[in-house]
Write a structure and sequence with these properties.
mainly beta, Lipocalin, eight-stranded antiparallel barrel, 11 strands
Amino acid sequence: MKTQRFSRSARGFAMHSTVPGLCAVALVCATASAAQAGRFEFDQRRTEVRFTFKMAYSTQRGRFTKVSGTLDYDEAKPEKSKISASIATASLTTGESLVDNELKGASFFNVKEQPVIAFKSLSVKTTSATEADVAGEITVNGITKPATLNVSLQPHDDPALKFDAGARKFVAKTRIQRSHFNMTDYQSMVDDEVDIEIDAIVRPR
């Protein structure tokens, strides 16, 4: 899986970029139910982007809670799928206000100037009946870089959605380097790599 990691420090918690990616977010493959072609939307109530990173010998975690986007998906032609997604940087949370404020500041996500992390797919390569590698571009902190998401798209297992015909469970993973997005503070304490996971429910539009 092609991914990167994330960072946090006691007071200098360095956010290893995007997502998440970010990251989003990301893409498509085949599933086991009736053939369906069309546009899906990310359910904002059941979608979040999680990140992990190493600080010294410990693993730190955080997440983005406001994610939106669309998935154009044809089960018969999954390689033609397309995804467009965005993450509100202000929705970042680690459970520690000091760390949140640092990551939202100008040295990292610069929330005031760069309110959105965006992902746009460019190509899809299926790797199994339910998985695909989705290559695209991710924009974090105003900087656009290539990113590849390992995506799984399957029937959902959420009992709350049992009557929601056509909804799918979407999971994507990737790894990025925060330094690629001009986030270089606290390098002595926090790894450059950030692992990202997008956990979502997509619904037919």
